[in-house]
Amino acid sequence: MPDGVDAYGGWMGWERAVMTRGAVACGNPDASQAGVEILEAGGNAIDAAIACAFAMGVVEPLDSGIGAGGFITLHHAASGTTTCLDFMGTTPAAIRYALYQAVDMTGDYTIKVKGRENELGHRSVAVPGAAAGLCEALERFGTMPRPTVLAPAIRLASEGFIVASKAALRMARTSDMLDLTEECRRVLKKPDGSLYVAGDRMTMTDYGRSLAAISEHGPAAFYAGALAAGIVDDMQAHGGFLTADDLAGYRVVERAPATGSYNGLRIASMSPPSSGGLVAAGLAALERQGIADTAEGRAEDLARAMLAMFETRRTGLGDPAFVKPAMESTETTSLCAMDAAGNAACITYSNNNHSGVVVPGTGILLNNQMRLFHAWEGSPNSVAPGKRPASSMMPTLLFDGDRPAMAIGASGSTRIVTALMQIVFHHLGRGVPLELAVREPRLHAEEDTLMADADYREVAEPLAAKLGLKFVALPGRDPSMASCQTIAVAADGTATAVGDPRARAQGRVV
Fold this sequence. Notes:
The chain has helices at residues 29-40, 45-59, 130-141, 146-159, 165-173, 175-178, 182-188, 205-217, 220-223, 226-237, 244-248, 276-289, 295-314, 415-429, 434-437, 457-467; strands at residues 14-18, 22-26, 69-76, 81-87, 99-103, 109-113, 161-162, 201-202, 253-255, 258-262, 265-269, 333-339, 344-350, 396-400, 403-411, 443-446, 449-453, 470-474, 483-489, 494-498, 506-509.
């Protein structure tokens, strides 16, 4: 990108100020406002993060929502608790796929699922964990009642919102899947069957009623109540695997964080089945070995660290209850919140690419997280009843002593891992201001490929040749190279909240 040219079209999306209440960073300005509303009403960072998460499920309905699953990493100041809640989707007990052998267009041998049933439609749906995970975090660590925290999301769904650029891009990229079921087309396309575009006004009336049921009755409405009955009826009508017993038996799993340190700060990230520990290990390795101070040297050292991280991941990451995600989508929701009392929360959750199934009358778009598993036996990430898939989602907190100093998370499949590593390195390792560290061009080295923003080609393409990797340039600053939301808080309470300009995201400080 030539000097003086703004790759993001003037989008700012960040604020810096001394916190009176707290700070939030979300992938959508309406969702950030939901968190601000809760902070200004006296809620803590966990309250605000949960409000943002429910709101993101409205304004980015393909990426997340109560049909999704994911992770929370949080710190509760009053109890001194730092913990992770795993609310990923789990495999239905009756799951069975018919497999066949094939040779793809490049000549590689593959095993495929007949009818792509693990990717599309009712048989691709894992037991959703979002309603359970978000409500459990709120009940255990929040301070505000559930109806208050869900109110902004319900209002957005019922009264409508302006479709943002990233949501519109997602709809365009998955247009065919929105036609997979009649209800999906009815809810997520216009009455004439055309797509919503950025700037359109959209309502999610049915979804607002579903959120209102959870607001009143808690997650039981989703796992045992009327919403559960609707999900099960739709599954039975279309040969899906998900049953009432699967829903009733779903449980959130609390996990000890993966830990590490970098530049004097302690790292707490999501532990397996997430890849959070890899980033901590990669940053520690960079700190030990040192890193070049030229653009070309930095890029090479980072790329080599990335390749080493993915080799570690490839050899065994999976659900620790069962000891490499299969086809992980770049489309995810990540957000974070911190407050003046020292609470912090980072949430990343996802529909994966979504199943194309909206449960009739509910507005709930269900995940296709079964796509994250290997459908064949013998892999650490093979399908098994009740199992949770390996994932790149890694909501992360960093601590200066006992004080939360930074929260960071991202969407973007395996680019999450490398984007977080680069932003933390640029900000903490090089001293680049956080709002500029997020705007730095990115590269991603994995397996046999080096990807980079197109305006980073001058550095990245020769590096790919040097490392023997195939080079791929992504046009513009595409959000598929990860959309990172992050907050840093200094010892004097000054917070910098940054929404990634790739997604026209928004950070707020109040």
